[in-house]
Amino acid sequence: MKNKKTWSELSPLQQKAIVVGAAVEAVVTTVAMIDLIRRPSDLVRGPKAAWFAALFVQPAGPIVYLAAGRRSQA
Length: 74
Known about the structure:
There is one protein chain. By secondary structure, the chain is an all-alpha fold. The protein is built from 3 helices and no strands. The chain has one domain (11-69). 9% of the residues are buried.
């Protein structure tokens, strides 16, 4: 089994990719959380509490909520 690399052992490109990925993950999670809080319960598929917990399953939870957890308002 390989030893894990420390931050300083990563190339600058790898470091940038991690920072950008973390920023994107934070933005998507924040958008999903705000939407879930503001959206009425009848426009959410399933219980809001379950979706709130799912938002912390990274990176899939927020993406699944935004793609499948919301009902259209029309």
